[in-house]
Amino acid sequence: MHLKVYRYREGMTAPRYDTFELVPRPGMTVLEALFQVQEQLDDSLAFHYSCRGAVCGICAMLINKVPRLACRTQVESLLKGDLKVAMATYPAIGETVPWVPEKEVLVEPLPHLPVIKDLIVDMDVFFRFYRFIEPVFRPSEATPEKERRMDPASVKKLEVYTNCILCAACSAACPIEGQNPEYIGPAALAKLYRFHIDPREAEGALRLHRADIPNGWWACALYGNCSLVCPKGVPPRTAIAKAVAALHKEKKEAE
Fold first, then answer.
1. Predicted TM-score (pTM) of this structure
2. Contact between 226 and 179 (Cβ < 8 Å)
3. Fold type of domain 2-121
């Protein structure tokens, strides 16, 4: 098989693609293939990872035109066509280099973020929006003697959103992110909704107002790519739709 990899470093007039021939073994992941290239064929290849170091999400990349985690995406499944995702199209997945999916695995950096080198992107913008929503728990009651209890139903509802690992795959798959660089983005909005529905949160009812701006909830067009690619099953589209409905209801009642 061939691994076709996006290459860029400071000083280059334009990026290029390098193709490496590898012999895949059963169960080989894209991250393992990248390591094989780096260790045996080209030690200048740059990519991020912190797998097995309790920092999940660092190895998110655009793999065969879908944002995925390289550490859990198997080469064999890609070549067989088993991992296709029916996403709404946008420039990052619509424009491509010559590529044969049955014989090649195409690896590129996450879209919508500045490329530092090869597959490494600058996440500063992503985390700027994350900090904007103030992702800090503000308890509604004084610190209890033991713990703040929740009923099982609330825990189950909340866990859907607490599973986010901030890999930015959802933002990379979002057509709006490519059109509007000031859009807060699905990851931050899903996290904001998580605090809104937390029964222990002091400002739960007010949390939605933080993103009640043109580049917040209202900028989303509900394409749904974000929910399709999340490696942890977090559904930003659902959170955004529910937040918009709640704000509509609140505004209507205030009239």
1. 0.91
2. no
3. Ubiquitin-like (UB roll) (3.10.20)
